[in-house]
C-alpha cells in the first residue's frame, strides 16, 4: 500500500521526520504511531470525563491543563505535518488534514467564545486516524474484504433502505390518522420517528398505541420489521460467502479444465496433472 | 422490459406525449420522470409538514395553496395519461391508475367534508411510482434477484409466520390466565399484542409481567423469540446465496436450447452437446 | 405418508367414516378437513373475543351458546374418532387424542367449577391439528427441510442455549450485587429475568440500571447479546444452505467421476458422457 | 483428548482416585461427574433462592445449613484434587483450580465479614466445569467447530467492535450536545450508554430524545444499528459455512501425508499421488 504523500524535498531532516510521522514501517515511525494513539485516546477520555458534572466540579483545573497540553501537542503535530510533506496544501485539504485542524480549533475558540470547548468532541473523529494506522499495519485483507462486500452489496442495500423509508412514511401516516395527537402521535414526523423505533425493534416505549386498531396495525408493523431483519443479513452473508470463495486462487487445469483449486495446490485434485502457475 | 401500455392511435401528438409520460428512454421522458419525482416528494413533504402543529399555525395558508397546486398538477397528469394511452379503461383499473386517482381525490373531497384532507397521506403510495421509475432505469437485476428470492422463500416463510402466530395465540392466552387484567393483560387480544411486542424483541414496556410465574414464562417467550430470528434470516440468506450462484453464467446450448447451465459446464447436461463459451 | 391409524374392522360404515375423518385424500375427507379447520378457528375466536370485557358485557349470551355448540360438535367428533379407529386406546393416548379431549373438557367442568371455562384456551392447541392437515396436503418438503435443519443443528443450538443461560446467571448475580434491591434488582431470579430481557434485546425498561458501574456492565451485556444474535442465525443459515445443496440429486459420471449434477441432468456437464440413473 | 494432568506417583489409591475425580472414561469417573454436576447446580440454586427475600425470611436456617454442607463438600473435593494430582501447584494456578478455590472461600470469609456470603455467586463460574465435563464426553466436534469459527472470525469481529465503539462515542457526544442534561443526557458517558442501548436495539426507554433534532439523529442511529446487525451475522454465517465444508472429508495422502483435501479430490493437490478412499 503506497502512502498518499511523499516527503518534502530539501533539508534531509524533513525526509527523516516525514517517515517518522507519516510512515509506519520502521521503529521510530511505529513508536510515533503508538504515542499518537495514546495521546488521541487520552485527549478523548479527558473530554468525556469533563462532561461528568461530579468530576468536572472536583477536577476542572486538571482537565483544563490537560486539554491545553493536548491541544498544543496536536498543534505542533499539525504544523510538523505541513512542514515535512511535499504538498502542504493537498494535505491541508485532505480528509485527515481537516480533521487534524478541527481537533485543535475548539480549544483556541474557547478563549473568545464561552462554551465552544464542548465542540472538542469533534476530536472523536481522530479515532479514525487510529483505525487508519491499524489498517496499514494489520487487518488490511480482512477490512478490505468487509469493505468490498459492503460496496458490492450497495445496490441491494439501497433498494432495501428505500423500501424501509417508504414503509416508515406509510405506517407513520396511518398511525397519525388512527391514534392522533391525544396518544402521543402529535405529527406525521413524530409518527415516522415512532415507526422507525418500532420497525428496528428498538421499542423505547415513550410513545405506544392505545386504540385497538392502532395495536393491530402495530402488530403488523412489528412482524414486518422482524421479518425484514432477514434481508440485510441475508444480503451481507451471501455476498461475504461469495467474496470468501473468490478469494481462493483460480488456476485452470490444462488437462481436465477444473478451475477451482485451493491456494496451495500444485496438482489438479481431479486428474493429478501438474498445475501451471501464471503471473497471477 | 416492455411497457404495459401502448400509445393511443390517431393524432401524432398523443404518441409523442405517451413517450414523454409513460416512457423512460429518451431525454424528454427522463425529464418528465425527474419533474414527477420532485413533485411527488414535494407534495408528500407538504402533507407531512402540515401535520406539525407549530408549522400549521404559522404557514397553513402557504400549505393550502401548495396543496391545491400539486392537486391540480396531478389531476392534469391523470387526465393526460387517460388521453394518450390506447386503453384508458385498462389504465384506470390498473394498480397505478387507482393510486394516481386516489392521490388527488382527498383534496376535492375536503371541499365538502371537513378533515378529509388528512386522507392525502394516501399520496405516499405514489412513492411506489418513483420506485417503479427507478426500477426501470437501474437496479433491475438487483431488485429482481431480491424479489425472486422472496418468491422462492414464500412457502418456507408462510410456514414460519403460521408457527409464530400459533405461538402468539398460545403464549398470549397463557399470560392472560397468569397475569390477568390487574397487571395490564386485560384481554386475550391485548395479551397477543403484548406477545408480538415481546417475541419480535421490540419490548415497549407499556405492559410488563409482575408475577414470578409470568416472568418465568416471559423469559421462555423471549428466548424463543430470540432463537427464531435465526429462521427467516437463515432462509433468506441460503436462498439468496443459491440465487446468486445460479445467476452467474448462462450459456444457451446450440442444439437443445437449454440455457440454464452451471458455471463450470462444458457440455449440455440435457443433450451432451459441447457448449460454446462466448466473449461473456 | 402413511396414516398413523387404520379403520376399525366390522361394519363398512366405519371404514367409510374413517376415511372421511382421518383421511385427506378424497373429496369428503377434504370437505371434513375444511369444516374442521373453520370450526377450530371459530371456536378459538369466540374464546378470544369473550375475554374482551366490552364484548363480554354485550354478547356473553351469544358466546355462551356458541361455546356449547362447538363443545358438543367437538365431543361428537371425538366419540366418532374413537368409534371408527381400529385401536381406540392408542388414539386416546396419542398426542392428538389428548388434545382433542382437553379441548372439550373445560366447558363441562365449568358446570361444576366457576371460572374453569377460561381453560378453554387450551383449545388453541387444536391449531396444531390444522398445521398437521396442511402439512399432509402441501408444504411437506419445505417443512421437512426446515425441521431436519433444526434437528441437525440441535447439538450446536444446545451448546448455544447453555452458554446463554450461564451468561444470564453470572450477569444476573453481578447486577444483583452492583445495583441491589433499591434499584429494582430485588433478587437474583429477578436479575436473571432482567438479564434475559436485556440480552435478547427486548428491553422493556421496567427495571433499568441506575449506578455508573451497573450501566457499564449493562453496556457489556448488551454488546454480548447483540453479538451472539449472530450465532444461531449463522448456524441455521449454514445448515440450511448445506441441506439445500444436498437436496440436489447426486449421480456420479462414469467417465470423469464428477458427482455434483443438477436434478434434470442426463449428460455430464464436464465431459459429455451420458449419466446412468440408478434406482436412487 | 488428553487430560491436562496426570495422577500423582506413589500410593496406588492416588491413581485410582485421580481417575475418579479427573477422569471421565470409566463408570466411577462418570458417577463422580454426575454427582458433581448435581452438587454444583444445587449449590447455585440455594444461593439464588436465598436472595429472594420471601424465601430468605422463611428458610434462612435451611439455606445456611445447606450452604455449609456444599462448602465443606467442595473443600474436601478441592483438597482431594491437590492430593491426587502429580503437579499440585500447576493445578492450583490453573483456571479451574482458582475457580474451585473461589467457590468455597466466600463462606469462610462470611464468618469474619458480614455480607461476604453474597460473593458466593462466584460459584456460578463452576458451571464452566459442567460445560467442560459435557465437552469431554459429547459435543466435542460441534463446540470445536463453533469455537474455531469464532477464532477464525476474530479479526473481522475486532474491526466490527472497534467500528461500533467509534460510532457510539461520536453519536453519544452529538446527542449530549443536542439534548443536554435537561433531557436525561447528563454526561457523555451516559449518552454513550444510551447510544449502546439504542444501537443494540434494546431500547429501555429510561432516556429518550425530546427535541426534533435529537429524534432525527436517533432515527439515523437506529437505522445504522439495525443495518449492522447484518455484519456479525454475515461474518459468522459465512465462516461457519466455510468451516462446515472443510470438515467434510479428510483423506491423508499416502505419499506426502497432506490430509486436507476437498470432498471430490481424487489426486493429492500437493504431490499428485492418487488418493485411496477408505470405507469412510
TrEMBL record, chains A, B, C, D:
Membrane-crossing residue ranges in chain numbering: 31-50, 62-81, 101-125, 157-178, 216-242
InterPro entries reported in the protein's UniProt record: Ion_trans_dom, VG_K_chnl, Volt_channel_dom_sf
Keyword Phosphoprotein in annotation: no
Membrane topology summary: Multi-pass membrane protein
The protein, known as: Ion transporter
Subcellular location: Membrane
Source organism superkingdom: Bacteria
Keyword terms, alphabetized: Ion channel, Ion transport, Membrane, Potassium, Potassium channel, Potassium transport, Transmembrane, Transmembrane helix, Transport, Voltage-gated channel
PANTHER family: POTASSIUM VOLTAGE-GATED CHANNEL PROTEIN SHAB, VOLTAGE-GATED POTASSIUM CHANNEL
Amino acid at each position: 500500500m503506497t502512502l498518499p504523500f511523499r516527503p518534502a524535498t530539501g533539508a534531509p531532516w524533513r525526509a527523516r521526520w516525514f517517515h517518522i510521522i507519516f510512515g509506519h514501517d520502521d521503529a521510530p515511525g511505529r513508536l510515533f504511531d503508538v504515542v499518537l494513539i495514546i495521546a488521541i485516546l487520552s485527549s478523548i477520555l479527558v473530554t468525556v470525563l469533563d462532561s461528568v458534572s461530579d468530576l468536572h466540579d472536583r477536577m476542572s483545573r486538571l482537565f483544563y491543563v490537560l486539554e491545553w497540553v493536548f491541544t498544543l501537542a496536536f498543534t505542533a503535530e499539525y504544523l510538523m505535518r505541513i512542514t515535512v510533506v511535499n504538498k502542504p496544501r493537498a494535505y491541508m485539504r485532505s480528509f485527515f488534514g481537516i480533521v487534524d485542524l478541527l481537533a485543535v480549533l475548539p480549544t483556541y475558540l474557547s478563549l473568545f467564545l464561552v462554551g465552544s470547548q464542548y465542540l472538542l468532541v469533534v476530536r472523536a473523529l481522530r479515532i479514525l486516524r487510529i483505525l487508519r494506522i491499524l489498517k496499514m499495519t494489520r487487518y488490511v485483507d480482512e477490512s478490505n474484504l468487509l469493505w468490498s462486500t459492503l460496496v458490492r452489496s450497495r445496490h441491494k442495500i439501497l433498494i432495501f433502505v428505500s423500501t424501509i423509508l417508504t414503509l416508515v412514511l406509510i405506517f407513520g401516516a396511518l398511525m397519525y390518522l388512527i391514534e392522533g395527537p391525544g396518544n402521543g402521535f402529535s405529527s406525521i414526523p413524530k409518527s415516522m420517528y415512532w415507526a422507525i423505533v418500532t420497525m428496528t425493534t428498538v421499542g423505547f416505549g415513550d410513545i405506544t398505541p392505545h386504540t385497538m386498531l392502532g395495536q393491530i396495525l402495530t402488530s403488523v408493523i412489528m412482524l414486518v420489521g422482524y421479518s425484514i431483519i432477514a434481508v440485510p443479513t441475508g444480503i451481507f452473508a451471501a455476498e461475504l460467502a461469495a467474496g470468501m470463495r473468490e478469494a481462493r486462487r483460480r488456476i485452470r487445469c490444462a488437462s481436465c479444465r477444473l478451475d477451482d483449486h485451493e491456494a496451495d495446490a500444485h496438482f489438479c485434485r481431479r486428474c493429478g496433472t501438474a498445475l501451471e502457475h501464471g503471473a497471477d
